[in-house]
Amino acid sequence: MNFYTLLEEAIISDDISTKERLTLQALAYCNENEVRAEAGFEPKVFEAPSYASRCHIVNPRELPARKDFDTKEGLGTLIHAIAHIEYSAIDLALDAVYRFPHMPLAYKRDWLVVAEDEIRHFKMLHRLLESLGYSYGDFPVHCGLFDAAEHTAHSALERMAVVPRYYEASGLDVNPQIMKKLDNKRKHPQVKALIEALEVILQEEIEHVHKGDRWFKYLCKEEGLGEEIYFEILERYKLLNKHRPHINVEARKEAGFACEEILKLGAKSCE
User: Fold this and answer.
1) Sorting pLDDT into bands at 50, 70 and 90, what band is 243?
2) pTM (predicted TM-score)
């Protein structure tokens, strides 16, 4: 079995059942074997995300304004947006394994487990979307996470800093705010189900960010760099000055962030 061909097929497939089957195959193989890329292996540059065949991709500024969650369409738009993040995260986790074959076996296992989690999250949200009469691809999406993967394809260190330690960590901040907004509509069965799904996702995403934190720190040590390089990387990608009105201090601490980092990101305190 060619492990990297399997990953490539999983990344480019737009069918969630195929992604799941291939991801589980790759994880099972990884659990039983030492994985090395064949001599001369060069990861492919993917010109478009796997969801391009089923979703209408627009510039983030062109996304329609979020409608009231009280309407079926408004709730569907919200669920679709979150499902799209989870779908994108599947490919990002798979690409983290495919793109950096020099990384240790434990790294490969970690990100395949993350991909497995993200598949489960997406399927959970998609069932909820279908209960409203919608499907993935019914609303426009942007490809910001795909672009982030493309921009960090040259460096595992920058990938760990930008994707799990920035974008996924930002999800730890945003997720509780969405649940808070939805709380007074909890009597609606789909809203209740969405809140429950978000609670599961939040807890599991803490572990995903923690894995990114672990491998970021590993790479800093391997490359002889101080962990403060994180802020230099964010500055390079124009991410450092993004407005963060709510910092989930406890979740970030649990995921490995130091108080000094959390305060620098904009938290008023780190207690």
Assistant:
1) low
2) 0.94
